[in-house]
Design a protein that fits this description.
This protein is mainly beta and about 150 residues long. Helix content is about 10%, strand content about 35%. The strands form 2 sheets. The chain has a 7-stranded mixed beta barrel. A hairpin with a 4-residue loop joins strand 9 and strand 10. It is globular, with a radius of gyration of 15 Å. The model has no long low-confidence stretch (mean pLDDT about 95).
C-alpha cells in the first residue's frame, strides 16, 4: 500500500504494517488507521496516520529504554483488541522530540498496545505511579539501574 507521509513523501508499506486503533489515540480519536514505517534513526519507528499525512508519531519499544518497565493492562482492555495470549501483545510508547532541544522523552504512562495477530491496537493509561508521560530516554539509558 502506498502511504503519503509527513517526512518521506510517498512510501510503500506492507499490509502487515498497517494498524487499526478503533478508538483512536488520545487527542486524535478521529484517526484510526496508521502505518508502521522504519525511521532513519533506529530504534525509533514512525507511526504514520494513513488518513492525515501531517499526523505522525515517533514510537519506541519501552523495554529497550527500561528493562524493568511493566505495563499492567486489564483483561477487558486486551479483549477489546482480541488478545487471547500474552505473547500476541507488543507494547510501544510515543516519543516526544521537543523543538527547543530539551530532553527527548517517552510516554510510559500511556503505552500503545498492539495485537500482533490481527493488528488491532489501543492506547491505555496506566495507573502505576512509577511511570510518567515524560520519561527522559537518554537519562534512563545512562542510569540503567533506575527507571
Amino acid at each position: 500500500m502506498e502511504v503519503l507521509t509527513k517526512t518521506n513523501g510517498v512510501v510503500q508499506v506492507q499490509d502487515d504494517k498497517i494498524l487499526t486503533f478503533e478508538e483512536g489515540l488520545f487527542g486524535f480519536e478521529d484517526y484510526k488507521k496508521f502505518a508502521l514505517i522504519d525511521s532513519e534513526y533506529e530504534p525509533f519507528i514512525w507511526l504514520q496516520s494513513i488518513e492525515n499525512q501531517n499526523l505522525a508519531f515517533l514510537i519506541i519499544d519501552p523495554f529497550l529504554v527500561c528493562s524493568s518497565y511493566e505495563a499492567d493492562i486489564d483483561d477487558s482492555s486486551l479483549a477489546k483488541i482480541g488478545v487471547t495470549k500474552p505473547e500476541d501483545v507488543v507494547i510501544m510508547t510515543i516519543v516526544t522530540v521537543p523543538q527547543d532541544g530539551s530532553a527527548i522523552t517517552a510516554n510510559f504512562q500511556g503505552p500503545l498496545v498492539i495485537n500482533k495477530q490481527n493488528k488491532k491496537c489501543l492506547q491505555v493509561i496506566l495507573t502505576d505511579n512509577r511511570w510518567t508521560t515524560k520519561v527522559d530516554i537518554v537519562q534512563t539509558l545512562n542510569n540503567k539501574e533506575v527507571c
